[in-house]
Amino acid sequence: MGLFSRNSIFPIYSELVTDMHCHLLPGVDDGSHDISETVACLKTMAEVGFKKVFFTPHFQAKYPNMEDDIQQRFAKLKQELSSYPNLPEVAAVSGEYRFDPLFARRPGVDKVVLLPNNMLLSEFSLHDSNYMPFDTFMAYLDMHYTPILAHPERYPYLGPNSPEIKKMKDIGILFQINILSLDGFYGQVAMEKGFEYIEKGYVELLGTDMHNTSYANALAHSTNNRRIKKMLKSHTFMNNTL
Ligand SMILES: [Fe+2]
Question: How far is the CA of 23 from the centre of ligand 1 (A)?
Fold first, then answer.
């Protein structure tokens, strides 16, 4: 973080309006631990300009969440959050579904919790390049869902010029870049790939993928990044339609 001051926060994401990817439902995955951490993260979201947030807990083998339980926890949390002022609207809970060989066999696969407009946030393994679930994507497209691939810049085995990426764009998969990637949070390679995906016109959505207060501090830091500010001025995203 260098000489960064926690006071240097600017609402540069206000035109996005909505963050559609974060892990702030406490205690259900590797995200926020409790409501105080969630509130601290949401305060930073408001400070950087977000007005609305969708929670997207992990659904994968490591975090065997079930939709009914997640929705009950969310309803309770939403009520508790109503007593805290100056937070973004916590709109709804959806999920970040890991597309791996277990996905199609998991119980309740027909109950996936979607984002608005039938959008389904999905991710691949960060390390296993052997599973590119085009059949799963096609099945969801056939059901009139629109899959979103989370953070394509973070998969070491994919890049903006990979044939698999071209194929995903051709069939109508939306891409969501992590804002923190663009500020170097995941390293130089992910940062450059993130900007390159955006410059190619491959990116419809930006997300914070916020997990805890260290992500919140990094998000605040990113509001001082001139390259991000310039990019935001010259590109539009779908976040404000959610
Ligand atoms: Fe995530």
Answer: 6
Strand pairing category for 58-59 and 18-19: unpaired
Residue 31 Cα to ligand 1 midpoint, Å, equals 9
- How many angstroms does the Cα of residue 93 sit away from the middle of ligand 1? 13
What's the residue count for the chain?
A: 242
* pLDDT confidence bin for 57, thresholds 50/70/90: very high
Count CB-CB contacts under 10 A for residue 117.
11
Distance (Å, rounded) from C-alpha 213 to C-alpha 120? 26
Would you state the CATH architecture of domain 18-241?
Alpha-Beta Barrel (3.20)
Q: How far, in Å, is the centroid of ligand 1 from the Cα of 120?
A: 13
What tokens does 218 get?
């990094």
Between the CA of 188 and the centroid of ligand 1 the distance, in Å, is 19
pLDDT of residue 150 exceeding 90: yes
Residue 178 CA to ligand 1 center (angstroms) comes to 9
pLDDT band, residue 131 (cuts 50/70/90): confident
Boundaries of every domain in the chain: 18-241
DSSP 3-state assignment of 24? coil
Two tokens at 95? Answer: 């999920």
Cα 29 to ligand 1 centre (Å): 10
CA dihedral 191, 196, 197, 199 (to 10 degrees): 130
